[in-house]
Design goal:
binds NADP nicotinamide-adenine-dinucleotide phosphate, 5-stranded parallel β-sheet, alpha/beta
């Protein structure tokens, strides 16, 4: 669908942020040019990418006129992607964490529960605060209004260095189960041709 049609459906003449969902091998430079054109036309206030690693970003840097303003990556206490994070920080690309709660699976961690109890907060709030203190934008998903409010209410406490470190120790550099299945990055064993089914992501 042409972007103009999407805007029409949304009932707006621009969006605040437009992201490229993932780096499809041999296609993402061309796709990025389309996002640049949309940005230059004023139809998106900001443009960015998702799931780009250092190689993708460096390649984009060699070919693009505008660098991404945002990189949305999988980031939570269990997966840190330090090389990508450092590259984005060095190049003024705002980081955004998808699955910031580890898809809900981190909420029962004893380490996080203990810290939450000490602050009178919930485990979800502590995890989101841990990400916020590292300058990530967080996009937790919930279908419950109360949880949405809870996830927003994270600006009245601060984790100290020891607490930040204790949570960071939960790192397993482990992606979601589905992530490695769709190796979109050009790996010969991957699924560069993979087209997601509606609602899959
Ligand atoms: N760019 C990408 O490639 C990519 C990939 C995956 C996801 N995403 C985006 O990232 C966003 C979030 O990711 P996600 O849905 O995978 O994981 P998530 O936000 O880490 O976790 C969502 C899960 O946590 C539960 N939850 C949320 N708030 C809670 C709270 N306060 N207390 C207890 N449970 C809570 C939700 O249940 P309830 O809904 O029942 O509350 C849901 O089961 C989504 O909007 C998605 O679009 C992007």
């Amino acid at each position: 669908m042409h972007f103009n049609e999407q805007l029409k459906k949304l009932g707006t003449d621009h969006v605040d942020l437009l992201l490229l969902h993932w780096p499809v091998f041999n296609k993402y430079i061309e796709s990025w040019r389309a996002l640049e054109a949309i940005y230059n036309d004023g139809q998106a206030r900001a443009i960015g990418v998702c799931n780009f690693d250092v190689d993708h970003l460096q390649n984009l840097m060699d070919h693009a006129n505008i660098m991404p303003m945002v990189n949305q990556i999988e980031f939570n206490p269990r997966i840190h992607q330090p090389d990508t994070v450092a590259f984005c920080q060095d190049n003024h690309i705002q980081l955004e964490a998808w699955s910031p709660l580890g898809n809900g699976q981190l909420l029962s961690s004893p380490v996080i529960s203990k810290i939450a109890k000490e602050h009178g907060k919930t485990p979800a709030q502590v995890i989101l605060r841990w990400e916020l203190q590292q300058d990530f934008i967080v996009i937790p998903k919930s279908v419950h209004e109360e949880r949405m409010r809870e996830n927003r209410d994270i600006n009245d406490f601060e984790l100290d260095a020891d607490e930040m470190e204790a949570i960071a120790m939960l790192d397993e550099e482990k992606h979601s189960i589905w992530y490695d299945k769709y190796k979109w990055s050009g790996n010969p064993n991957g699924r560069d041709d993979y087209i997601a089914k509606p609602g899959e992501f």
